[in-house]
């Protein structure tokens, strides 16, 4: 039996709100009767520090994710460490969990549909360097001309961006299992 699932990346620089947004999306998915899983990229170099990363993955699990992991420098933490994991292998592993949605936190350079979180003017360079952006959420007002055709929300417009993202997920940014 084949199962379809959606993938959405949440990207931005450190302390831009990626984990908080991921938590909110997990809760929205659960309210709609969808099972959610998360994959977090440890983007600080080296292997993930279990004590530090446990906080974010615990937040994901507490929000209702059925599985959560952290990857960094080829090591996947899913309660245990496996060597030489990458995003593609992790997504393959997640097939076992029969999830409806996989939220990927980080992995800026991957090409899955993504939300870009902008916390300062310096972060706007992400909009020039990333692909497959479906929406931008900013901590400050951004002039319309700087956004191309991206759907744009201010951080405080939570209800609208959560509805937009859940609708996008249900449209079919799907990968067939």
From TrEMBL:
Q: Which residues form the Molybdopterin-guanine dinucleotide biosynthesis protein B (MobB) domain?
A: 7-138
Name of the protein described by the UniProt record: Molybdopterin-guanine dinucleotide biosynthesis protein B
Give the CDD domains listed for this entry.
MobB
Q: Which PANTHER family match?
A: MOLYBDOPTERIN-GUANINE DINUCLEOTIDE BIOSYNTHESIS ADAPTER PROTEIN, MOLYBDOPTERIN-GUANINE DINUCLEOTIDE BIOSYNTHESIS ADAPTER PROTEIN-RELATED
What NCBIfam families does its record include? mobB
Q: Which residues form the signal peptide?
A: none
What superkingdom heads the lineage? Bacteria
Q: What is the lineage of its organism?
A: Bacteria, Bacillati, Bacillota, Bacilli, Bacillales
